[in-house]
């Protein structure tokens, strides 16, 4: 079978299964199997697809038809100009989280940072990659996710500037009060009652611990906001991702008086997405 025929068959199967952007996803799968870019793929559609790779290509297609996230199938995900290793046990990085990173970089200029709930390590890695002098802590409760964070930081040569910590409770961290320049977090913020409505790609495969924010999606913030108010040095920043206007309003009311709100950022769809506070002296 030539590459073009295989590509068409993949597109038809993906489209029939209701997969969004079936042509794009078929190309991702085939490029991964061929270890070539899309330009090569399009220039060689009339060539025979390597018979030895047909089983792998079909396996990848079946996994996607079963709604497994494409990032898990490929074993990686793009985030800004970074390419991260991802797989079962960690949340797939979302473009919206780039706003969280950009906001953090625009505010924070000194002092170590702490990334609470690091997952794949995407936030910590992005901060370290952008600030060659920076050092920080990446904390994660899920051991399988922490392994992905370690692999990503190692691949980019950043382990010497980041301490990885396996911990589920902020108050168990042995950090001196007033020692951090930045606390940043993309915590679980999907209300428990809304988990059933998530896309199958997310609901069936991504870790619920990284998604479930409890009633109203606010549980993780109840401990994070007061802890950050103590852990930050005067002039330090707390930057968090959240979901929607109701959560934004609740978080602004929940914050300690020692935290001054300095940024409220919406995502490209106009949905409230990021909040930032500055620790007062």
From TrEMBL:
Its EC number is 2.1.1.297. Pfam families: MTS, PrmC_N. One of its GO terms (molecular function) is peptide chain release factor N(5)-glutamine methyltransferase activity. GO terms for biological process: methylation. CDD domains: AdoMet_MTases. The gene is prmC. This is Release factor glutamine methyltransferase. Substrate binds at residues 186-189. Residues 97-190 form the Methyltransferase small domain. Belongs to the protein N5-glutamine methyltransferase family. PrmC subfamily. S-adenosyl-L-methionine binds at residues 117-121, 140, 186. Methylates the class 1 translation termination release factors RF1/PrfA and RF2/PrfB on the glutamine residue of the universally conserved GGQ motif. It comes from the Bacteria. The keyword RNA-binding does not apply. Keywords: Methyltransferase, S-adenosyl-L-methionine, Transferase. Residues 7-75 form the Release factor glutamine methyltransferase N-terminal domain. It comes from Aminithiophilus ramosus. It catalyses: L-glutaminyl-[peptide chain release factor] + S-adenosyl-L-methionine = N(5)-methyl-L-glutaminyl-[peptide chain release factor] + S-adenosyl-L-homocysteine + H(+). The keyword Ribosomal protein does not apply.
């Amino acid at each position: 079978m030539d590459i073009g025929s295989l590509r068409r068959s993949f597109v038809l199967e993906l489209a029939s299964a209701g997969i969004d952007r079936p042509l794009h996803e078929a190309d991702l799968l085939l490029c991964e199997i061929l270890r070539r870019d899309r330009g090569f793929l399009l220039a060689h559609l009339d060539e025979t697809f390597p018979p030895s790779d047909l089983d792998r290509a079909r396996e990848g297609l079946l996994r996607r038809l079963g709604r497994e996230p494409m990032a898990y199938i490929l074993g990686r995900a793009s985030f800004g100009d970074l390419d991260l290793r991802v797989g079962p046990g960690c949340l797939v990085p979302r473009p919206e989280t780039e706003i969280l990173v950009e906001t953090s970089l625009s505010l924070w200029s000194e002092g170590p940072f702490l990334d609470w709930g690091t997952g794949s390590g995407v936030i910590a890695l992005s901060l370290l990659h952008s600030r060659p002098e920076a050092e920080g802590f990446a904390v994660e409760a899920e051991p399988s996710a922490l392994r992905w964070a370690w692999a990503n930081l190692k691949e980019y040569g950043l382990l010497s500037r980041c301490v990885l910590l396996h911990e589920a409770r902020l108050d168990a961290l042995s950090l001196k009060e007033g020692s951090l320049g930045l606390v940043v977090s993309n915590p679980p913020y999907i209300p428990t009652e809304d988990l059933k409505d998530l896309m199958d790609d997310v609901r069936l495969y991504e870790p619920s611990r990284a998604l479930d924010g409890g009633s109203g999606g606010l549980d993780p913030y109840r401990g994070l906001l007061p802890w950050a108010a103590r852990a930050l040095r005067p002039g330090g920043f707390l930057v968090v991702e959240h979901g929607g206007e109701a959560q934004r309003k609740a978080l602004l009311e929940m914050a300690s008086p020692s935290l001054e709100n300095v940024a409220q950022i919406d995502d490209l769809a106009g949905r409230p997405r990021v909040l930032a506070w500055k620790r007062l002296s």
